[in-house]
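FAQ: What does a ligand-bound record look like?

Like this one, built around iron/sulfur cluster:
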Amino acid sequence: MIKAKDINEHTPWQDLTPGGEIYEPGTARAFNTGTWRTNTPVFHEEACKHCMLCIPFCPDSSIPVKDGKRLDFNYLHCKGCGICENVCPFKAITMVSGGVAL
Amino acid sequence: MNRVYDLKREVEKPERLTGGHRLCAGCGAGVIVAGVLRALDKEDKAVVVNATSCLEVSTFMYPYTAYMDSYIHSAFENSAATCSGVEAAYKALKRRGKLEETVKFITFAGDGGTYDIGFQSLSGAMERGHDMVYVCYDNEAYMNTGIQRSSSTPRFTRTTTTPLGSAQKGKQQHKKDLTEILVAHNIPYAAQTAPLGNFKDLHIKSHKAIYTEGPCFLNILSPCPRGWDYPMDKLAEIIKLAVDTCVWPLYEVEEGVWRLSYTPKKKLPVADYLRTQGRFRNMFQKGNEWMIEEAQQYVDQKWERLLEHTGA
Ligand SMILES: Cc1ncc(C[n+]2csc(CCOP(=O)(O)OP(=O)(O)O)c2C)c(N)n1
Ligand code: SF4
Ligand code: SF4
Ligand code: SF4
Ligand SMILES: [Mg+2]
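The answer part, i.e. the structure of the complex:
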């Protein structure tokens, strides 16, 4: 069966999945919403206390965590809302203007 | 089930709502859905049913799904009926020994899909006693179609169908108290929560709702930067004010026993909450002081009644 990543505006209807169903989980990950950003969060690792308060507040799953450590942003889906900056008690996040982090 | 809440452990679970969905930047809905699904035990599967709404059009656009679990969109008015049907089929398969795994059934719908058009199917599913959770993410209007009022919209709110003019100044009726209506269904568990602080309240209530046998209901306040007219970075601040002013009290009713989950250190004036959102701007105009007074009275009355119920 055709994979979600191969489906686009030019795919003939006969090739689409039956009933318009999706047979793979989490295919939205392939879609870049990072292009929406007009402001970009920047991570200051030295200030981070790994309290994890920013993680559940990120609407776009853009703050990865591994082995008890909060890692740098994944910008693919980050829409630059700035919620993470406001909830961080340790000023480990600052927003810079523009869609690209320098 | 009764393990202590540990944010660090919870955020390291594999996510069940992925990035790449098209909810507006800063939208509360995705935060809530991810938070509820995080409460599933890792090894369990879920069937997510979703009523037509901002959430639905943004998280499931062919061929992109933001869900790691099975997902069904049927229609605006029947998400609870759809979910109850799948649950009944699952039980039948289990009975015949055709299914081993544990599957949980969770419906998400907006306030329009819950307080208004989906109310009959919700009431029916709860009355029939299906083993499912119904989650309303309440953003207090029909956002996906352009901010029309619903029976959840608070009094004095400006929406596109309750405009400011000479005939009316925002919505004329109070918000319907749906959580109490669900409590009156005598279901095993009903609660109000919000994405607050370290998410302990939302997490524990979601876990209880998912793992309590029978029909359970969660009502979750879901800020919408577009419809509420506030800057998109203010989600956490607005939720904090909603609970500290008692506009959105956090409580639960388990087997008929009411429990208050959060008491503000200092109960703040309702105006502190209203002021943060453009949808209430009219209330701050000269001559409209009575609106703020009436809103305050209403919240105080509801809060007092809740304290009576909970014995707090
Ligand atoms: C029967 C029916 N009537 C109307 C619509 C159009 N419609 C789609 S989404 C929506 C609003 C949903 O509001 P709500 O449930 O509050 O969710 P929100 O978009 O606010 O998150 C409406 C009216 C529809 N899809 N089906
Ligand atoms: S700016 Fe918003 S989307 Fe980006 S990481 Fe912070 S909270 Fe997530
Ligand atoms: S809230 Fe701040 S200190 Fe805590 S994990 Fe996030 S970036 Fe680090
Ligand atoms: S309109 Fe509101 S509820 Fe809908 S996606 Fe945008 S912020 Fe979310
Ligand atoms: Mg709504």
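Follow-up question: can I read anything off the structure? Yes, for example: Chain B has a mean pLDDT of 97.
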